[in-house]
Write a structure and sequence with these properties.
This protein is mainly alpha-helical and 222 residues long. 70% of the residues lie in helices and 0% in strands. The chain has helices at residues 2-6, 14-24, 27-35, 37-54, 68-87, 92-109, 115-134, 138-155, 161-165, 185-200, 203-206, 210-215, 217-221. The relative contact order is 0.08.
Length: 222
């Protein structure tokens, strides 16, 4: 994979070329990638941060930090490695390592890229693995279950785990806070009335509903 970087077009940055080459790797190169996936993922993260520092875009909105093409390559790469994990899950040594490295890679991406996009990558992994678990015999699906749980454990160890799960809206879809920095007495009374009404229906706060899982994505997965 690294040899391919030398033949890359001048216009592509290191992290962009890595994402593309890791996805396109096959045969002996693919085996090398699987064996040293931690190295390539770590190199990509460092190259991404270096690019942001060099381009002076560390404080830029996350959605505009990287190109759409790079996002597509990352999505294809994650889907590719997820398929690899599923198809070779019985080879526990190498695949367990790949699964952990992929989880740590997404864990690090949460600090660099648009988090909504990273959540979609996590969803891709979870959706594919869960779909395969449901069609397997129980005695054969236990390995995938363990890989999935370990994946979630690593993702959930992120330092901003709690902020990542804070909802923007209450159970009924209304904003939980006042829209005004200096609310009037009438708006305060209105807000208090609303809170009292909502808290009266305790079940809406305790239920693990689809809406709750959308607003608390990682907790919903766990």
């Amino acid at each position: 994979a690294l040899a391919a970087l030398g033949n890359a077009s001048v216009g592509k940055l290191v992290h962009e070329q890595l994402a593309l080459q890791l996805t396109l790797s096959k045969d002996s190169s693919r085996d090398s990638v699987l064996e040293c996936s931690w190295f390539y993922f770590e190199l990509m993260i460092k190259a991404m941060v270096e690019h942001l520092a060099t381009a002076n875009t560390l404080n830029a909105p996350r959605k505009h930090r990287f190109s759409d093409q790079f996002n597509d390559d990352i999505l294809n790469m994650v889907a590719s490695f997820t398929g690899e994990i599923i198809s070779k899950h019985r080879k526990q040594g190498r695949i367990t390592q790949l699964n952990s490295c992929l989880a740590f890679f997404l864990h690090d991406l949460l600090s660099v890229m648009d988090r909504g996009f990273v959540f979609s990558l996590i969803r891709t992994y979870m959706k594919e693995v869960t779909a395969n678990i449901t069609i397997m015999e129980p005695e054969h699906s236990s390995v995938l279950w363990e890989l999935q749980i370990d994946f979630l454990r690593i993702i959930s160890s992120h330092e901003h785990f709690i902020p990542l799960n804070l909802p923007q809206y209450g159970p009924a879809g209304f904003t939980s806070g006042s829209s005004s920095p200096t609310p009037s007495l009438r708006s305060i009374d209105s807000a208090s009335s609303f809170i009292s009404t909502m808290m009266g229906d305790r079940s809406s706060w305790a239920e693990l509903s689809s809406e709750f899982r959308r607003q608390h994505f990682l907790v919903g997965l766990c």
